[in-house]
Inverse folding.
């Protein structure tokens, strides 16, 4: 029978005699006595099957198929099972990204960027189990010091948030016992990145906008509180409820929360003139969407809007 020896709080050693009569042991930490008892039971079943040459019982075979690579590696080390093929960082990311069919295109782009930065610093052939907290610390320094596009705290925070997500998924899949990024805190974003746009400044920006479409984009953001670009892409004139003086806004960023896939916003008096101007043109040209300017099949990108709007703000003379 496999025996259990407790070595400290949450640490256990399960010992057994293999088919050659050698005394072997499997150690576990950060665990419970219940888990140790269950592990000992399955070790006894595996060892018994190895000694007798009989097939494993169904419950232990099922248990083996569900355990993570870390525990499987410990069992293989004492010749209870054959070593599993090693899952590398690159293989895991490829499989995880393929699973995430729920990501919007803009989300996919952000995750592709995060993955590329991670693989630029940690080789894709690195086994998942060999990635440590030291790798995580080094990656944080790499983003902050070596990548010019990561000077923004918000950008670094998003990349790190995504990477932490990947390793949490690896833990849930039992590929690793703990995430090396668990102890990494996201960079704090200072209040100085926020700026209140006064009515006077808003007016100057609107005057600097080149056409009706750009005035409407800015007005929807400033007066309607609409997220740019996720909530203007796909915004149709059929969503403008003139008789109710409201606009139905579909929100891709919050649609995964119950009851938060859409909301109604008032057509505020400050917003109405820009909506009326755009509607007049839309009727004449047969536009389906509120924002038709340089539309691609997936709408306006955040990068494009940011680039154009920065030029407009610079022209208006309202840069903070």
């Amino acid at each position: 029978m496999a025996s259990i020896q407790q070595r400290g709080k949450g640490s256990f050693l399960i010992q057994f005699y293999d088919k050659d009569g050698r005394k072997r042991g499997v150690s576990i930490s950060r665990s419970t006595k219940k888990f140790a008892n269950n592990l000992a039971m399955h070790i006894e079943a595996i060892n018994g099957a190895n000694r007798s040459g009989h097939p494993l019982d169904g419950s232990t075979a099922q248990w083996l198929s569900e355990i993570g690579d870390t525990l499987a590696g410990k069992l293989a080390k004492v010749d209870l099972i054959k070593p599993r093929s090693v899952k590398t960082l690159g293989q895991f990311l490829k499989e995880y990204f393929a699973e995430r069919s729920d990501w919007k295109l803009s989300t996919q782009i952000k995750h592709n960027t995060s993955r590329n930065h991670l693989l630029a610093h940690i080789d894709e052939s690195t086994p998942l189990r060999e990635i440590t907290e030291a790798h995580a610390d080094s990656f944080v320094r790499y983003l902050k010091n070596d990548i010019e596009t990561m000077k923004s705290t918000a950008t670094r925070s998003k990349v790190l948030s995504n990477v932490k997500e990947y390793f949490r998924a690896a833990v849930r899949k039992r590929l690793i016992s703990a995430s090396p990024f668990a102890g990494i805190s996201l960079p704090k974003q200072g209040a100085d990145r926020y700026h209140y746009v006064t009515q006077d400044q808003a007016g100057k920006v609107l005057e600097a906008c080149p056409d009706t479409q750009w005035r409407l984009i800015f007005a929807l953001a400033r007066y309607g509180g609409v997220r740019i670009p996720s909530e203007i892409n796909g915004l149709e004139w059929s969503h403008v409820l003139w008789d109710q003086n409201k606009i139905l806004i579909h929100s891709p960023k919050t649609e995964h929360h119950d009851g938060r896939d859409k909301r109604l916003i008032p057509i505020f008096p400050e917003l109405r003139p820009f909506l009326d101007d755009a509607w007049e043109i839309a009727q004449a040209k047969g536009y389906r969407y509120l924002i038709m300017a340089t539309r691609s099949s997936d709408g306006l990108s955040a990068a494009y809007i940011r680039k154009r709007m920065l030029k407009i703000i610079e022209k208006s003379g309202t840069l903070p």
